[in-house]
Amino acid sequence: MFQDFFRTFAQVRIRPAQFSVLAILERNPGLRQTEVAAVLGIKRTNFVGLLDELERRGLAQRRAAAADRRSSALYLTDKGRTLMRKLKRMVAVQERRMTARIGRSNRDRLFDILHRLAGGEA
């Protein structure tokens, strides 16, 4: 899956961790850096470099958090939102490819198992 992900997203120069950050910011604009890093299990020092790259590319931005101006709230930029629309279409293609390889019932079973491993309900 990771090899397929890397091939699929190479054209837009997005790695799995970057995609995860962008997806979280799309659904939860205004989260603080520490919150996003904690949710993804990324060390703070590694997260800073990852976020720096997303900012450099104009996909995300830091703003002073309203509740605590010493911390940064994170947001997608217009360019980041546009890229996420494209990435979601790419994910759909990748998921169809995976489903074609393992079948719908095995895909459903895999998602159920992954959901359980992630701590979801049975």
Content-based structural category: mainly alpha
Shape: globular
CATH superfamily: Winged helix-like DNA-binding domain superfamily/Winged helix DNA-binding domain
State the CATH topology. Arc Repressor Mutant, subunit A
How many strands appear in the DSSP assignment? Answer: 2
**Main sheet strand line-up:** 1-2
**What is the top-level CATH class?**
Mainly Alpha
How would you explain this protein's 3D organization?
The protein has 122 residues and is mostly helical. The chain has one domain: Winged helix-like DNA-binding domain superfamily/Winged helix DNA-binding domain (Arc Repressor Mutant, subunit A). Helix content is 66%, strand content 8%. The protein has 6 helices and 2 strands. Strands 1-2 form a two-stranded antiparallel sheet. A hairpin with a 7-residue loop joins strand 1 and strand 2. The protein is globular, with a radius of gyration of 16 Å. It starts with a helix and ends in a 5-residue tail after the last helix. The mean pLDDT is 91.
In a nutshell, what does this entry contain?
This protein has 122 residues and is mainly α. It is built from 6 helices and 2 strands. The protein is 66% helix and 8% strand.
